[in-house]
Amino acid sequence: MRAAVLHEIGQDKLEVLDDVEAVGFGPGKVRIRIRATGLCHSDVSAMSGVLPQPAPFVPGHEGAGEIVDVGDGVTGLAPGQRVLLCWLPACGSCPACKRGQTQLCLAGFLNAGTPNFKRPGGDVFGFAGTGTFAEEVVVDAGCAVPIPDDVPFDIAALIGCGVTTGLGAAINTAKVEAGSSVAVIGCGGVGISAIQGARLQGAAQIVAVDPVASRREAALRFGATEAVAPDALADAKQRITGGEGFDYVFEVVGRSATARTAYETTRRGGTLCVVGAGALDDFLQLNMFELFFDEKRILPSMYGGGDVLRSYERAIALWRAGRIDLASLITHRVPLAGINEALEQMRTGVALRTCIEI
Predict the structure, then answer these.
(1) Separation between Cα atoms, residue 62 and residue 269, nearest integer Å
(2) Rounded to 5°, angle at Cα 337 from 336 and 339
(3) Count of CB atoms within 10 A of residue 132's CB?
């Protein structure tokens, strides 16, 4: 079968090969034919080494498709069923799951260290234990989440990561209050979803911050009340909040420099929500006096900060009701053979989300 493979960490292009095989099918597993997958910034971060991932590997974790086969012991799933892929399934029995923090379950991360593809030359890993830049993938049954027939594969793929992450950051983690002021730094697919989440929560002012003009223009269509380049953020803070700072600031880039800017843009007693996934060696510096004196809440948000299955259901309900726009998040479409074109679209910032149709 065909799959896009990164041979070594640090390479900036993928090679689409036709000699890749999905492996590991057996009890408790499902085989899925991928129909659509989104290109998420985390895929690019794994390729560059910002996020740890063994290589060679097939990137992609934001996917949807149809079940081809189910292994022994799998219940509630059947061949032909439409599913989205959950790259971080909850085991239900670890301490995090028992506390109701299923998004912090580590069981799914263990899958990342087990090859789920192979080539004649050896084993190939799937990013985050999935690897959706492939025609088929074998995953644990818990990764396959059934979707209603009226949800298109491309919409379902977005819900599998970016939409859930952004919406959840505003609704679950930060719990944006009605009438509040919000700034979102980084307006790709996740940032735009955070903007939609803040709008749903009733924020009065939502300032989108991004260096790319087309993304700023898009943010206004999705609910931002104003959109500025990074060098205009200080002025926006002064004009909108009287210099005090925003009630909520979302950092959706994953870099200490922007997190520091976000901290400084948050009012005293306000909330900084860190959504971007950054590098292990990139440290955010705060002095102990400001940490105490400003009493700003710093809230990281992992995969939307809540039960992902419930978050999927909520996103589908909001989409059906017309309360969130998911179709317009997909600004570009390419076939699997055009995967490197999609990577360039992300790196240059011209795309909110590129859908890879497989």
Answers:
(1) 35
(2) 65
(3) 35
With b for 16 or more beta-carbon neighbours within 10 A and e for fewer, the 160-186 pattern comes to bbbbbbbbbbbbbbbebeeebbbbbbb
As a whole number of angstroms, the distance between CA 48 and CA 278 comes to 12
User: Rounded to whole angstroms, how far apart are CA atoms 189 and 268?
Assistant: 29
Whether the CB-CB separation of 263 and 296 falls below 8 Å is answered with yes
Question: What does pLDDT average to in each consecutive run of 10 residues of the chain (358 residues)?
Answer: 97 97 96 97 95 95 97 96 95 91 84 89 94 97 96 97 97 98 97 98 98 97 98 98 98 97 98 95 96 97 94 97 97 96 94 94
Q: How many CB atoms lie within 10 A of CB 225?
A: 17
**Which 8-state DSSP code applies to residue 94?**
S
């985390």: which residue's tokens?
42
Instruction: Please check whether residue 29 is in contact with residue 74, taking contact to mean a CB–CB distance below 8 angstroms.
Output: yes
> What CA–CA distance (Å, rounded) separates 168 from 190?
10
Nearest to 339 by CA among 80, 8, 14: 14
Q: What angle do CA 159, 164, 167 make, to 5 degrees?
A: 125
Both tokens of 309, joined, read 């299955």
Indicate yes or no: pTM above 0.85: yes
Place of tokens 């949800």: 151
A 10 A CB-CB count for 282 gives: 12
Q: Kindly report the backbone phi and psi dihedral angles of residue 217, in degrees, each rounded to the nearest multiple of 5, phi listed first.
A: -65, -40
